[in-house]
Amino acid sequence: MVEVGEQAQDFLIPDQNGNEIRLSDFPGKRVILSFHPLAWTSICARQMEALEANREAFDALGAVALGISVDSVPCKRAWAVRLGINRTRLLADFWPHGEVAQMYDVFDSQKGYSRRANIVVDEFRHIIFVGEYPATTVPDMQDVLDVLQAQEKSRRAEEQVPEI
């Protein structure tokens, strides 16, 4: 598993609409990489619905969430429609199979899909949070929100310190 403080690796994979997405496409933003094993499973669905439900809070904190699994673009598109996910990008880490999950060391090579994890990358592409969760557990997005809020408070405090 990657660790806090490491430089996040850039990647290029499509979202559910076939648009090519790179980590570096979000300058000045913090990015939540929310890895889930497979589409069309109830726990993964609730994880992606939580990203969509927290979209405004993420926006307010200068963050964008990306849901990532090894499923194909057509699969992710149909699943997003089924779940009513309209604003959150669901990325297809389909080919090369699980390449992004492997980059971030969350790929389970025995099962052929990623483990459940949230990784938060700051605007300088440093990893600031890593959370891995049991496959049977929906990640609590409050962990992610807490990290984003703490970083935002720290940033505001730094901006208020007068330079001498």
UniProtKB/TrEMBL annotation:
<dbReference type="InterPro" id="IPR036249">
    <property type="entry name" value="Thioredoxin-like_sf"/>
</dbReference>
<dbReference type="InterPro" id="IPR050455">
    <property type="entry name" value="Tpx_Peroxidase_subfamily"/>
</dbReference>
<dbReference type="GO" id="GO:0016491">
    <property type="term" value="F:oxidoreductase activity"/>
</dbReference>
<feature type="domain" description="Thioredoxin">
    <location>
        <begin position="2"/>
        <end position="153"/>
    </location>
</feature>
<protein>
    <submittedName>
        <fullName>Peroxiredoxin</fullName>
    </submittedName>
</protein>
<keyword id="KW-0560">Oxidoreductase</keyword>
<dbReference type="InterPro" id="IPR024706">
    <property type="entry name" value="Peroxiredoxin_AhpC-typ"/>
</dbReference>
<dbReference type="InterPro" id="IPR013766">
    <property type="entry name" value="Thioredoxin_domain"/>
</dbReference>
<keyword id="KW-0676">Redox-active center</keyword>
<dbReference type="Pfam" id="PF00578">
    <property type="entry name" value="AhpC-TSA"/>
</dbReference>
<dbReference type="InterPro" id="IPR000866">
    <property type="entry name" value="AhpC/TSA"/>
</dbReference>
<feature type="active site" description="Cysteine sulfenic acid (-SOH) intermediate; for peroxidase activity">
    <location>
        <position position="44"/>
    </location>
</feature>
